[in-house]
Specification:
This protein is of the alpha/beta class. α7 links the parallel β9 and β10. The chain has an eight-stranded mixed beta sheet with strand order 1-10-9-2-4-6-5-7, sandwiched between helices. Strands 3-8 form a two-stranded parallel sheet. The longest helix is centred in the N-terminal third of the chain and has 15 residues. It contains eight helices and ten strands. The protein is globular and about 50 Å long. It has a single domain, classed as Vaccinia Virus protein VP39 (Rossmann fold, 3-Layer(aba) Sandwich). It binds S-adenosylmethionine. The site of S-adenosylmethionine (SAM) has 22 residues, from α1 and β10.
Amino acid sequence: MTQIVNTIKEGDCIELMGEMPEGCVDLIITDPPFAIDFKAARHNYNRNGDRVLEGYNEVEADDYLAFTLQWLDAATRVLKESGSMYIFSGWNHLKDLLIAIDQCNLTTVNHLIWKYQFGVVTKRKFVTSHYHCLFVCKNDKKRKFYPYCRFNKDAKTENGGSAHYKDKEDVWEIKREYWQGAIKTPTKLPAELIAKILDYSSQKGDVVLDPFLGSGQVAVVSKMKGRGYIGFEIVREYYEFARERLESGKYLIQKAKAEPSWDLFATDA
Ligand SMILES: C[S@@+](CC[C@H](N)C(=O)[O-])C[C@H]1O[C@@H](n2cnc3c(N)ncnc32)[C@H](O)[C@@H]1O
């Protein structure tokens, strides 16, 4: 087990999780493929001269439930009894994820909403500006949670309210980030979002897994915050990009700024 902590691998996460020992991971944070027509939505990403990595591996909509059941079952096996899992999802295939969570006998702790800024301007529907994040666990009595990790009991908000209460509300308003550097990937989770999950559901030295690494953001932020990391990515170019970020120490994370208008789900512009 020690050999795979602080490594990432190129390949199919369902196979690679199958090679891991049972119950070896403290926390899983992941953002699986969405089963949307990604190329059709790509026109929304409009930053001339920037290099956006191609080749993102999608799953057909008809296969999505079977795929979700397979990877979630593998992820559940490697999660410790005391572990937690946070799974991001758009609304379009949320039902498949909810079914799979049920079938894998996981307990839902919270249904979080990540509210972000700047969807595409739409003419025939409302603008999508949120993702779902399912916080689930194997054993609700054993899972770890650190309620005052970011604000002590007496800390106040600007309005005089309880800061830790506010921070623990289940709608998280967090901005997307700009990429630093020439290469970009289109679906990066903000570092701040990952850091918040790490704070509440892990401690230094815990092992964090992301089976769908993409740009490697979960592994990068886990490393920055002193957690062990394990990650998998099926597309070579993405895997190499993530590995380079982790090995070079040039994490390419910037404070959140307004991302130009683009949205994976708002294809109605
Ligand atoms: C939504 S993206 C993850 C983005 C990531 N959270 C980030 O912040 O950059 C999903 C990733 O899963 C990868 N992927 C799809 N199927 C996979 C599989 N079977 N095994 C491993 N990775 C896979 C895709 O290539 C894509 O990079």
